[in-house]
Amino acid sequence: MNKGTTRLLILALGMTAGHALAGAQKYEPLSASVKTQLSKTVADTAVEAAFADSPVVQAWLSLMSQRLTRFIPDAEYRADFLETVHYEATRAGLDPELVLGLIEVESGFRKYAVSSVAARGYMQVMPFWVDLIGSREQNLFHLRTNLRYGCTILRHYLDIEHGDLFRALGRYNGSLGQAQYPNAVYAAWRKHWTTGVLPASYSPMPRPIRKGS
């Protein structure tokens, strides 16, 4: 193998989501009303920065920045990343720390991660979502776009599953009914990111598969 081929191989491996649990959302037909609502949610509007002025948010950003340093060494980009995670997660009604756990499992905090089934970016969003609820100019490798889509999709799955996080995470990963992925997200969330008590309603253990799952 010559040096040029070796470089290309290394690049390709670097672009692939190396986490064994990175999966893929599965296409499911959406009703017109759901599609319209999701399209509005992912509309590419500017992030409101005023929320970051809150002392509580500032303390959270500082703590998470310390924890995230090993994944994202650049301090300026790390701050932008965390502000965007906090904003987009909160906007979708999600715990920002849960989102950090999901990103750790899905992409290992690699912006340009691509899975074997073409899921892209930090939250490993499948490209079909852009055609389904977005617009062609939206780039899933763009930080805010990727997080906007990822948080919107997880919120959508939570709504479908009536708040059952275990099943919603399974849908997100394309492994509904299997425990490995939800438990991995839960473990990352608990060990590396949580600053409080995890919801008692989430049970990190194997679940029986319901009919129709």
Description of the molecule:
The protein has a domain at 48-152: Lysozyme. 53% of the residues lie in helices and 0% in strands. The protein is built from nine helices and no strands. Helix 7 crosses helix 8 (165-173). The chain is globular and about 40 Å long. Mean pLDDT is 83; it is low at 1-19.
Task: Quickly give the structural class.
Answer: mainly alpha
The whole-number mean of residue pLDDT values reads 83
Number of helices: 9
What's the order of the H and E elements?
Answer: HHHHHHHHH
How far apart the termini lie comes to 46 Å
CATH class of the domain at 48-152 equals Mainly Alpha
Integer-rounded radius of gyration: 17 Å
The CATH architecture category of the domain at 48-152 equals Orthogonal Bundle
The CATH topology annotation of the domain at 48-152 reads as Lysozyme
Largest beta-sheet characterization: none
Can you tag this structure with a few keywords?
213 residues, mainly alpha, 53% helix, 0% strand, disordered N terminus
Summarize the helices and strands and which ones pair or pack.
Layout: H1 3-15, H2 32-41, H3 55-68, H4 75-91, H5 96-107, H6 128-133, H7 143-160, H8 165-173, H9 180-193
Helix pairs in contact: 3-4, 4-5, 4-7, 5-9, 7-8, 8-9
Summarize the structure.
The chain has 213 residues and is mainly α. 53% of the residues lie in helices and 0% in strands.
